């Protein structure tokens, strides 16, 4: 295949992130909004991590995975929001080529890790409900380490492959990225090299990384529903389901957003769909997760109250 756009073979060393809007009157409002969202995200997720670390009662596999989800959400949000805030404040949309690749790497690393952690947490709930007497034996520290380490290895590999392939391309079809961060497809559209390999790799990883966590979640909850259905008492059913409520809410938000955005006919507004999905998954949901897990979980509420009261007593 011939390289595209052979004219204008000037190599681009930086890109311009066009952001969510180019209207100057909206910049201040967006800056205030996203700064507030980011601060709530960081504070909420780090509070969850601290509560789990300081409360011995929460040193269980479920909360171990929840603390990792909170850390990943913190990093996921930090991948895009700080740069967007700087661009809004300084009115400077530039990002270097290296900075763009780094942002792309971390966005796909933490974004994919988010979905894998949701799958791992579904496995944890499956074992807890279907095999309650063997839970502590099955979910040993070694198994928890493998369930966490495996996804980290796979997601880093995926991000590394995407980044290495992107770094080999030549960009000469303009420098404006119609997005608020550097993403794969908008960058490929600016390349004048042959992007066929990149597109195949994106498709292959998209199928594997997208479907495998979702299948894992669906299979886990199918087994959970079947096990709960066989519990004779309504109280027993409610007790079993109550441990899954927060996780199901987050899963519904995460995958509901993806399905709502992408399971629609293609249209000229596809770039707006991409922005909406990235905003929900990378900005809004990481902010909501601490509220979902603290408001719907008695143990988490108690740990947070204990942490806050400790902080208040140490100040006085």
TrEMBL record:
It comes from Mustela putorius furo (European domestic ferret). It holds the Pfam family 7tm_4. Keywords: Cell membrane, G-protein coupled receptor, Membrane, Olfaction, Receptor, Sensory transduction, Transducer, Transmembrane, Transmembrane helix. InterPro entries: GPCR_Rhodpsn (IPR000276), GPCR_Rhodpsn_7TM (IPR017452), Olfact_rcpt (IPR000725). GO terms for cellular component: plasma membrane. Residues 44-293 form the G-protein coupled receptors family 1 profile domain. GO terms for molecular function: G protein-coupled receptor activity; olfactory receptor activity. CDD domains: 7tmA_OR1_7-like. Its main location: membrane. This is Olfactory receptor. Belongs to the G-protein coupled receptor 1 family. It is found in: Cell membrane; Membrane. It is a multi-pass membrane protein. The chain crosses the membrane at residues 29-53, 135-154, 200-228, 240-264, 276-295. Putative odorant or sperm cell receptor.
């Amino acid at each position: 295949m011939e390289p595209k756009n052979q004219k204008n073979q000037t190599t681009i060393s930086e890109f311009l992130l066009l952001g969510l809007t180019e209207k100057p009157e909206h910049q201040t409002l967006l800056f205030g909004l996203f700064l507030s969202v980011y601060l709530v995200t960081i504070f909420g997720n780090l509070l969850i991590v601290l509560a789990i670390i300081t409360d011995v009662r929460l040193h269980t596999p479920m909360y171990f995975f929840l603390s990792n989800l909170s850390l990943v959400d913190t990093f996921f949000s930090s991948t895009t929001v700080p740069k967007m805030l700087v661009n809004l404040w300084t009115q400077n949309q530039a990002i270097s080529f290296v900075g763009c690749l780094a942002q792309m790497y971390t966005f796909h690393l933490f974004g994919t890790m988010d979905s894998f952690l949701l799958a791992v947490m579904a496995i944890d709930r499956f074992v807890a409900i279907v095999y309650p007497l063997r839970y502590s034996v099955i979910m040993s520290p070694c198994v928890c380490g493998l369930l966490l380490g495996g996804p980290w290895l796979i997601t880093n590999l995926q991000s590394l492959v995407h980044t290495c392939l992107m770094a080999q391309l030549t960009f000469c079809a303009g420098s404006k990225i119609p997005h608020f961060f550097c993403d794969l497809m908008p960058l490929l559209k600016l390349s004048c090299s042959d992007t066929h390999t990149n597109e195949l790799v994106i498709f292959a990883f998209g199928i594997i990384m997208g479907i495998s966590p979702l299948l894992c979640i669906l299979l886990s909850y199918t087994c959970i529903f079947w096990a709960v259905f066989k519990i004779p008492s309504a109280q027993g059913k409610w007790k079993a389901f109550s441990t899954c409520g927060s996780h199901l809410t987050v899963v519904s938000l995460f995958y509901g957003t993806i399905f709502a955005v992408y399971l629609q006919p293609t249209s000229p507004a596809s770039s707006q769909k991409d922005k909406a999905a990235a905003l929900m998954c990378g900005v809004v949901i990481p902010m909501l997760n601490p509220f979902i897990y603290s408001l719907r979980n008695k143990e988490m509420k108690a740990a947070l109250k204990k942490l806050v009261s400790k902080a208040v007593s140490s100040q006085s």
